[in-house]
Write a structure and sequence with these properties.
195 residues; alpha/beta; Rossmann fold; six-stranded mixed sheet; 33% helix; 8 strands
Length: 195
C-alpha cells in the first residue's frame, strides 16, 4: 500500500513524484474535487493542486463522487493507478464518500496497489475518523454527520495546515481521541508504505 498525505499537495508534489513507482507521465490519475463543492467557484487550492499535477505530466481525469453508485465508482477507479482526493470540506466529502461507495472501494483498491494521495480533506479522509478536521473549527459539519468513521488507510489522525498557533487546540484534541495524532504543515507530507 502506498499512501501520501499532504496539507497542500501542490507544494510537495515535486518531492512525491520522485518516490512514485513510475514517472508521472506513465500514471493515470483520478482527481476527486468533490470536497470543494461547498465553496462555489472560489477554490484556489483545487486549481493549484490540479495545475501542479498537469504540469508534472499525470494523465489526469476528474472523478466527482456526486450521484455515483458504488458500481460506477468501482468500475471507474479500478482503471486508474492513482486516486487523488483534493481538499475542501471534510464532512461533506465523507458523506459523499459513503453515498458513492468510495469508502468501500478505495481501501480495496489501495490494498491491490492503487496509490492514494490526499490533500487536506483528502488526507483527513484516509484516517480512521475525520474527528481532527473539526478541532481547529476550519471545517463545518455541513451534512450533520454523527458517525465520523473514515477510510482507515492509516492508523493515526492527521492535523493539516499545522502552525504553532494551533498547539493548544491540538493538545486538547489529543486528549479526546484514542488515536495517535500527527501534524502536517503545508510544506510537509507523510508517505505510508506497507506490503
Amino acid at each position: 500500500m502506498k499512501i501520501f498525505l499532504t496539507s497542500s499537495a501542490s507544494q510537495v508534489m515535486d518531492k512525491i513524484v520522485k518516490i512514485l513507482p513510475k514517472g508521472a507521465k506513465d500514471l493515470k490519475l483520478a482527481f476527486v474535487p468533490t470536497a470543494g463543492d461547498p465553496y462555489g467557484d472560489d477554490k484556489p487550492w483545487i486549481i493549484a493542486d490540479r495545475a501542479k499535477l498537469v504540469e508534472l505530466g499525470f494523465q489526469l481525469k476528474d472523478f466527482d463522487l456526486k450521484n455515483k453508485t458504488e458500481k460506477q465508482t468501482r468500475e471507474t477507479l479500478s482503471k486508474f493507478d492513482v486516486v487523488f482526493v483534493a481538499g475542501g470540506n471534510t464532512f461533506y466529502l465523507l458523506d459523499l464518500a459513503r453515498k458513492s461507495g468510495f469508502d468501500k472501494v478505495v481501501p480495496e483498491l489501495v490494498k491491490k496497489g492503487t496509490i492514494y494521495i490526499g490533500s487536506s480533506a483528502g488526507s483527513y479522509l484516509a484516517c480512521p475518523t475525520i474527528e481532527a478536521a473539526g478541532w481547529k473549527h476550519a471545517d463545518r459539519n455541513i451534512p450533520g454527520l454523527k458517525d465520523l468513521t473514515a477510510l482507515g488507510l492509516v492508523e493515526y489522525l492527521i492535523v493539516c495546515h499545522y502552525s504553532d498557533k494551533y498547539k493548544d487546540v491540538i493538545a486538547k484534541g489529543r486528549k479526546s481521541t484514542k488515536y495517535p495524532v500527527r501534524t502536517l504543515t503545508d510544506e510537509q507530507f507523510i508517505f505510508n508504505e506497507s506490503p
